Amino acid sequence: MSAAVPLETFDSVVSRAETDSMKWEKYKGCDVLPFWVADMDFAMAQPIQNALRERLEHPIFGYTYAPDALGEAVVDFLQAEYQWQIDPHWLVWLPGVVCGLAASCRAYVEPGDHIVVNPPIYHHFFDSHEPHHVIDRLPLRCGNDQRWTWNLTALEERLQQGGVSLIMLCSPHNPTGTVFTVDEIQSLMALADAYNVTVVSDEIHCDLVIKPGVQHHPTAAAAPAFQDRTVTLMSGSKTWNLAGLNCSFAVISDAARREAFTAAVQSTVPPVPPLAYTATLSAYRDGGPWRESLLHYLWNNYEHIVHRLAEVPELSVHPLEATYLAWIDASELGVQDVQGFFEEHGVGLSGGAPFGQERFIRLNFACPRATLDKGLNRMLEAIETLRA
């Protein structure tokens, strides 16, 4: 493998003006720095740029199958990264993980059945179901060490009541940044098996474990005895900054569940665009060195946030193992609308309410250090106005 790219590569500030970026256009005409939606302000890896340029040499972009080479690259990546051996026939290609959540609800949940989700969690877990399904919110528990994890006792009590046909997980967890242990995963999957519940595991952030010494374990690989009741959703989009090139995939080992999932996708989910396949293939095949450096840079950014806010009692940065999304308790700030307060002072963060935790904010730190420091400076200045 090629050497990792220099960390200084990520210090380059790339203007996103005139690109219709959702992240930046939200505050167009305002002096607000965006740290909200989960895409990165880093140029994508050079091999991916080169692959896209090469594909652009051909003037036709029609409906496109997933290249055989892409399936092979994903199989090889999962084996090398997680020691998870999958069959390429288990792959179902999708234009996004969110539509995989929706397809799972359609495929495995009957009218009136219940779906368990664990807030705080990515807001699409609350709204990807059908109107005739029922969402049960079983909150994560936060320990004295500020690590968030599943409340398995509450989960078992709920499953004993009946009516639950699907559990939707986020692993690694967004927004808390938790990487679940093998023991935690196996305990949850044993409950799902005991009560005959299908589990869909959104693992879009699995390749973004930034804390040194921590390892992600795919749900199906961590609990192989229960692999056949698991639907795993993955994508290279977060890791390699391909958010606008919509390509993800489901890994479904059980043939009956795969058939039901594919039927739910039929006629409701658009095909993956050809350039998205091109970019994703290059990411999994050639993007390793760029990712290696990215993980170091992101961890350094996270530690920088912790250091800068360590003497700010109004904000508590919770421990993070994965993602580039800092989860910050702002309950001591003493303002009604935390997100709005910081926006007024030039910092665009994600509010905690859509995730199910109003007193928190989420900060996307996948940006050059200079941009991050500008945002942190504004946050500190904003807090000083409250103290004054």
Tell me what the structure shows:
By secondary structure, this protein is α/β, with parallel strands linked by helices. It has two domains: 7-46 and 288-387, Aspartate Aminotransferase, domain 1 (Alpha-Beta Complex), CATH 3.90.1150.10; 59-286, 3-Layer(aba) Sandwich (Aspartate Aminotransferase, domain 2). The protein has 13 helices and 15 strands. The chain has helices at 22-25, 46-56, 68-82, 97-108, 124-127, 152-160, 182-194, 219-222, 255-265, 274-286, 288-309, 338-344, 369-387, and strands at 33-34, 91-94, 114-117, 134-137, 141-142, 148-149, 164-170, 198-202, 230-235, 248-251, 316-317, 325-329, 347-348, 350-351, 360-364. The strands form four sheets. Strands 2-10-9-8-7-3-4 form a seven-stranded mixed β-sheet, sandwiched between helices. A four-stranded antiparallel β-sheet has the order 11-12-15-14, with helices on one face. Strands 1-13 form a two-stranded parallel ribbon. Helix 5 links the parallel strand 3 (114-117) and strand 4 (134-137). Helix 2 (46-56) packs antiparallel against helix 10 (274-286). It is globular, with a radius of gyration of 21 Å. The N and C termini lie far apart (54 Å). 47% of the residues are buried. The mean pLDDT is 97.
